[in-house]
Every structure is written in structure tokens, then in C-alpha cells.
């Protein structure tokens, strides 16, 4: 009885502090997370969480690739249109997973554990309102996109940087979901730093920051998945480049430097026009898309070799 009364008083007090009902929606979730403070500040959590979430979010695409070995219709959505036997596909995934695991173990884990030790954890009493959470996540994504564009462009322009930092990522000319993190240790660390810096500059609530990191991981996987699926984010929101946009970068090693959005490449004249026909015929429906963008320095890059 006393506990219920205490909880009731706390709820009223939290409501008064929020000032509007929208702020209360995320409060129970945030209260639960705050109760796990010790676990959340564990030095090994960030690297383990990042690695496991990456694997988990890649899993549907592995299932997709495996299904494609038995059900060729799925391969209509492939951008590269190169299907291979199941055994080869599994070998490719296991090899890539092992490479990423080694880099996490030797570089990302020690670096993030050190960072977690020295940083002062923030656990504000109030959860963010939904509108604040969405606003902060979008701002973080836009900022990260701009910072990554500059960093990625520099790595391609400075030969030393390309060889030492970025070349490993380009060993995958045809990408698949796991290759989003198949990069040199220096590049993996630099990406972590850019993501953390973006959240720090925006001054995110920890809950918004967690969602931003999750979305960041998902968008990178989607960029590299090798499929142009009808429900992909870039199909719903054309401001995103998506897998065809980033696959074009992996095909010709220049242009389309931004990770998620198209605007920086448009503005800087590095946009590669993409004509993709993945998923053009499915279920009797024709979804042929032809995009010919005329921008400064634009090049047509088809998913398959073509005579454009
Ligand atoms: Zn890539
Ligand atoms: Zn690149």
C-alpha cells in the first residue's frame, strides 16, 4: 500500500516536471534503463552491443541470401544479380564475420572500454519527449552524414589515407550486409568517433543517442545489403541513397561519398546517377525505375555492366 502510494506520488511529480503528456510516454522505459545503471556503464558493453547488434540486424539478409539459392525469384531484388551456391555464400559470411570479430577483439573492444572508463555517464531523471527524441535522432543522422562525407571524401583523395585506412573496406566490390563493418581497425574506430562526436555536439539525451547508434547500424547494413528491396528506407524516403547508391560507390571507387543522404553529393558534384532495375519484375507487377539525374560530374552507374 505504502509502495503504491509512493509510486503514485512519484508519477505525479514526474508528470509535473515534464510539463506535457508527450514527455511521459518514454518515462517507464527510461526508468527501467536507469535501474540497470551498473550494467549499462560496463566497459565491455559498447563493443559487445555493437558487434552483436550488427550480427543480429544482418541475420535477415543471410536468410535472404540462403533463400535465394532455392527460390530464384528473390534474386530479382539483387543489385549485382550474382547468385552463388549456398556453401560459397556461407563461407563468404563466416570469413567476413571472423575478420570483423578479430578487429573488434583487438581494437574496438579495448578502445571503447577505455572510453567508457574515462567518460562521465549521464542518467538524467527525465526521459525525452517523443518529439525531442525524433528531433535529436534526425539531427544526429544529418550531422553524422556530413562528417562522414568529409572523412570519406578525404580518404579517397589522399592516397596515404586510402591505403592505410579505407582500402580494406573496398576489398568488397560487391557488398553484402556484413561488409558494412568489414573495414580496417582505424576506419572502424574513426566511424565510432564520428558517431559519438555527432551525439555529443547535438547534446543528445542518452535514450536518443542509443536510438541513433541503432539506426546508424541499420542504415549502414541496408547500404551494403546488396538488395534493392521495395520496403527499403530509400524507397519510402527518396532523400536516402540506400543500397543502389552505395553499391555504385563500391563499383567505381569514387562519387556517392555520403553514407545515407544524397544531398551532399548533389551539392558537391560527386553524385553518381544510378539506374537500377533490381526487383523490376516481381509478382506480375512491373516496377521499372529509371533515374537519370543530371548533376555536375554525374555518371551513370548501372548495377550490371551496361552501355549507358
Ligand atoms: Zn561501403
Ligand atoms: Zn569509399
From TrEMBL:
Query: Which residue ranges run through the membrane?
Result: 44-64, 132-154
Gene Ontology CC annotations of this record = membrane
The reply on keyword Signal is no
What is one Pfam family matched by this protein? FA_hydroxylase
Q: Which GO molecular function annotations are given, in alphabetical order?
A: iron ion binding; oxidoreductase activity
* Protein keywords: Membrane, Transmembrane, Transmembrane helix
The record lists the lineage as: Eukaryota, Metazoa, Chordata, Craniata, Vertebrata
- The answer to whether keyword Membrane applies is yes
Domain Fatty acid hydroxylase residues, every copy? 138-270
InterPro entries membership: Fatty_acid_hydroxylase (IPR006694), Sterol_Desaturase_Related (IPR050307)
Organism listed in the record: Oncorhynchus mykiss
Where does the UniProt annotation locate this protein? Membrane
Could you identify this protein by its name?
A: Fatty acid hydroxylase domain-containing protein
The domain of life for this entry's organism is: Eukaryota
**Which terms under GO biological process does the entry name?**
lipid biosynthetic process
